[in-house]
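Bench notes, bay 3.
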Amino acid sequence: MTETSAAGDMQMPQTTTRSPQEIAARLERWMTARLGADAKPRISGVDVPATNGLSSETVLFQAEWHEDGGRHRQSLVARLAPESTAVPVFPVYDLGRQFGVMELVGRLSAVPVPKVYWSEPDPEPLGTPFFVMERIDGQVPPDILPYNFGSWLTEATPEQRQQLQEKTVGVLAALHGIQRAQREFAFLEPDGSAPTALGRHVADQRAYYEWVVADGMRSPLIEACFEWLEAHWPSHQGPTALSWGDSRIGNILYRDFAPVAVLDWEMAGLAPPEVDIAWLIFLHRFFEDIAADNGLPGLPDLLRRDEVAATYESMTGYTPRDLDFYTMYAATRHGIIMFRIHRRAMHFGEAEAPADVDDMISHRRTLEAMLAGTYWSDRGL
């Protein structure tokens, strides 16, 4: 997720900082305990980049160790849960669950996920739980500045962007095609008594909102959006599928405009396919609206709602339905995250409390237009 000011100025929110030298030493001690003294692990090239995400911290490093009679060398990535002092975006960071999702997705589908090596729930080795996966080279559409402001995607040809779009929708098709998702990923089922996966998913998001506003600073706009969702509940709900949760192109590494690594599974769950489809569509619209506000052309030919739905149908035979509902749901979920991120920025002295609490939601006008039923028609989409 990213934070956007009203003027469109983009900045990387605060994250915790750890010394690369300290991380290397602690990783070596941990790998020695994990693999045994005979492995003689060595860690080098530690880098803590300013990445797209702010929810989990990413550490890149090179590791060498003895294995099967030879010296093994591997480029690796550690994903670290944020410390409590970092005022995390989400209430829980279950990295073991993310590790399990990635391992299963890699085993049960053709979705390109990095190989996962080890999961460490004990905070002692690095000060917080983490897991380790392989590092894959590729290009990611940047968040800061957004990819549609000017990037390798804006410099690509229309045909290349179309290829990226089709291959990305193909990731969702393959992910949702995993058989017996409710059984294989039962550990993702949230608490709740709602009779459907969509009902439980929405109830879980309501619970997240209540956690964000536990101090009493509530958002009338977000609450109006939840009321709208209840009033427009789909009469038909699609099959329960594994939901990536944060299905946006900024969470994919591409090579030659094709996905080579699908990342960031902390929002994974069980839901109808439309939850991921709408998130993919809306998160691009989020950046497109920022580009328009800044007088930039953006990428209007990318991830258009009807085109994404039609491509998904052609790949799966399943017709996405009720996309007005699901894109509103995506915008509402994103609104809760933006509300939390602004409050996080206030904590670190990067932002002030606005006179109107709903101005803490950077896409407030989008939500208001969706409530009024004018958002998509105003944009010719």
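Next record in the batch:
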Amino acid sequence: MVIEGVIGAGDLNFERVVMRRSGDGELSLAGWTLEDENGHAYLFPQLELYKGSTISLHTRAGADTVTDLYWSLAEAVWETGEQITLRDAQGSERAVYRLP
């Protein structure tokens, strides 16, 4: 998995993290987490990704689809200079991204 970037950081209506499956085969994100440095953590639902698949995690509320997930928070999470960490179900770091 690769964290490609954050779009709309600081604006709840537009804020989202874009991630892409870079490896071969199928990957289940069940139990994976996306975390910031302030203790916010999103727990992924059962979701299967294939090579090249792209998903967006929106901070605001919404209805999950196969390409868009919604965290349902009341305020924006991501800030300039902050590190985002993607961890697998065992807690191992799988990707890191620092907001410019």
